[in-house]
Amino acid sequence: MLNSLLIGGGVIALIAVAVVLLLIVIFAVWWIKTSNALIRLNNKAEEAWASIDVFLKKRYDLIPNLVETVKGYAKHENETLNNVVAARNASGAAKTPEEKMQAANALNSSLKVLLNAVHEAYPELKADANFRDLQQQLKNLEGELESARRYYNGVVKTFNNKIQVFPSSIVANKKGYEKKKYFELENAEERQNVKVQF
């Protein structure tokens, strides 16, 4: 009888150990899977930001040509041109994604002021082939930048959801992941409907 109790107790202990080991394996697999998913999302967000960075650099390189072309026509628009150059310089000095986002928004605003002033006051400049080409390049670049910004914001949303939703938030907190910032328009006038006048 003692023998059968010992055998029965040993089987129960063995089953308990097997269940505990199975739970540990399941937890480890979940932890690794969640950790890898977070790493992939973080890398995807960094890749998306790198694409935005490329477009910001292209725009940064295009600005001097645009400013020089406008200078020939708009001699008394020095303040507007200086604002564009200052915004360009600020975007070149920005290091972190947050600083680059702020600098990009400032550059957008100063470029809009410049292009609006040019369109209203210098019809002969609008006819200049070099200016039209630069303006078209800038327009194409802004479209690509907008697409990249939309993609980046989508990836950031997925990443932020993953690090905030339970149970993956446990892994995210242990790994030190923090919420990423969206690349949004800062100026209220940029969110308004555009008035097109001919």
Descriptive notes:
There is one protein chain. The chain is an all-alpha fold. 81% of the residues lie in helices and 0% in strands. It is built from six helices and no strands. The longest helix is centred in the N-terminal third of the chain and has 72 residues, at 2-73. Residues 188-198 have low confidence and may be disordered.
Shape: rod-shaped
List low-pLDDT spans.
188-198
Terminal CA distance: 102 Å
Which percent range fits the helix content? over 70%
Question: How would you classify the helix and strand content by structural class?
Answer: mainly alpha
Q: How many H/I helices? A: 6
Itemize the secondary structure elements and their pairings:
Blueprint: H1 2-73, H2 78-93, H3 97-121, H4 123-126, H5 129-164, H6 168-175
Question: Which structural traits does this protein have?
Answer:
single chain, 198 residues, mainly alpha, 6 helices, disordered C terminus
How would you sum up this structure in a few lines?
This protein is 81% helix and 0% strand.
